[in-house]
């Protein structure tokens, strides 16, 4: 009897460049390498159209509509490929000076999900809401292979009610696209937040942060018991790890926190709604 193929996650950590064209080339290369190495899911950082260290207006000034050059190139790069790609982009909003921080799930050239970040990073002296408009809806789940995936963006990971809602809706793999800013204790906060969201929801968690002079990198994959099973360093890296959905079942049998809970959770959007 042949062993059942496990699910392969690719953590695609990189330093986002100043132009859309440079970042298109980087994402195409990561998609090709992920596909070649048998990845089922490729997770990329937050805000990957364009960034410039120290210039907080840069992402807004270089935002594009979802039918613009960057997302069009991203969709084309996934066409006729197996791998599902997750990232976030700065999307123009018609008639609005600020952009939407949109998480995208892309497979075979199609947008399977567009999720507008709920919790904007107005903390630690930063004010993301100066340049971005918050969303108002918990995203639908997307099936990727044997997993039902829930998606959040960066600062969202500090709000456990959101991931609990996703887990109660059936998520067994939580995906975090981030640009986690460096600072005192911030690496610890990233690690604790990802591990806590995994353990309290008995889910796998795949979190990818931009690296470089501003953000920490340290992308990682956490199992349902809160154990880090794969982790990147602080420079550009494409890291692969295989996970088994049976691990979720085993954990939930031993630690049935979702069954034992006493509180309700917010309602998700209907599956398939963008």
From TrEMBL:
<dbReference type="InterPro" id="IPR036526">
    <property type="entry name" value="C-N_Hydrolase_sf"/>
</dbReference>
<dbReference type="Pfam" id="PF00795">
    <property type="entry name" value="CN_hydrolase"/>
</dbReference>
<dbReference type="InterPro" id="IPR003010">
    <property type="entry name" value="C-N_Hydrolase"/>
</dbReference>
<keyword id="KW-0378">Hydrolase</keyword>
<dbReference type="InterPro" id="IPR001110">
    <property type="entry name" value="UPF0012_CS"/>
</dbReference>
<dbReference type="GO" id="GO:0016787">
    <property type="term" value="F:hydrolase activity"/>
</dbReference>
<feature type="domain" description="CN hydrolase">
    <location>
        <begin position="7"/>
        <end position="245"/>
    </location>
</feature>
<comment type="similarity">
    <text>Belongs to the carbon-nitrogen hydrolase superfamily. NIT1/NIT2 family.</text>
</comment>
<protein>
    <submittedName>
        <fullName>Carbon-nitrogen hydrolase family protein</fullName>
    </submittedName>
</protein>
